[in-house]
Amino acid sequence: MEMSRSIDDGFTATATGGTTTTLTTTDSEIAGKPNDYFNGSEISTISGTGAAQVRRVDDFGVVAGVATFTIRTWTAPGSDTVFEVHNIQGKGYRKAQYDDAINAAIRVASDVYFTDLSNISFALERGRGTGGVGGTTPHGLQRFETPMPSGFLYLWGVDVLRRPPLESHSIANLNAQRAFGDAAGRTRVGQGFQIDAQALIAYIAVFMGKVGSPTDNLTCVVETDSAGIPSGTAVTNGTSDTVGGASIQERFRLVVFSFTPPMLLQEAVTYHLTLRRSGAADAANYYIVGEDDGNNYPDGALSTRDASAWTAVSGSDLLFSISPQADWAELVRPSWQYRPQSTDQLLIRGPWVEGTPVQLRGGAAIAEPATESTNVPVRAEWVVSYALAWLQRGRTGLAVPDPRGTGSLNWMQAAGVQPPPSRAFPPNTVRIYA
To answer: Is 265 buried (19+), middle (13-18) or exposed (0-12) by CB count in 10 A?
Structure first.
């Protein structure tokens, strides 16, 4: 209505009643118009009795303050029927055209308005160049490529933790894998470890993947030691933030568990990182961890838990890294690249230590409207201005060019409508197309 009224093409009112071929109203604004004023216009019932009907007005007349619209057969309106009139005297637009323009504007607004998104879902693996796992690229730089985490609409920053891991067991030792969360006898998995100096630990990365499509959450809990197995007692602040199972990939990755606030661990003391799922055991949808069964890690061992007790697995270890609280180092733009190929890929180059957490910074997509009742946080006045430009350029009924993309934004600016994003995009912003 705001759009149509701005070009003198909108009236809305409540009916007093009607028949299968009429609608009456005593609205003073409508009843103040001369006979035949609305002939040929479009009348739409919006709510109440006989809602969601659209007809052309065959005749319009006013008698003793009662306005009567005569139309072709429809469901008779009642005294609760709210209606709109558009496309008056051949000017303006039909309701479907207004709706088309509004929907186009909201779709583009979904691309302009965004909220911050920060994701620490993975850690750096060693390069996969000429040396294979643990190798480097021909240029001597590590090359790390991973699918983009979900949820990003834009990406404008990639950060690496400034301090390398304090303790780790390299993925180069991978020679087996172990399931957990798939049966009552394998509800949890753990790994003993020590660090060489007292430190605040903020991140633990574990080389792992999934089978099927688990939808519950994962948590890493650091427990004290009891004769070589987890004691069941978590250290202070030793429970990580949750990681959604849906975000775990089928391909093994170093998945990072963040501890907020960090936990204080002592040097040369045995602790156990333990992984547990929030849901019940599921033989079709579960998690797998990378394993080294060559007894190559000296300061702890792998352990598994059934419904009631932990059991040490002699000679086997998980592949993991333990990282301290530290600031983030922002990578310069040539050090990272987003490539929307068969699957969205993020490429990172640099002399980085395996297991170092990576933080992505960007914008999260807001929900696009599925129905007229969908709540989308955009500025109504901007939607109106863009939708009117869309109408007046004769673009109604056309497919939206590059939905939620730069094409629509460029056309909008060419139309003289400057989109007001929630703020300016940071430098080096790239569009994520997944």
So the answer is: buried
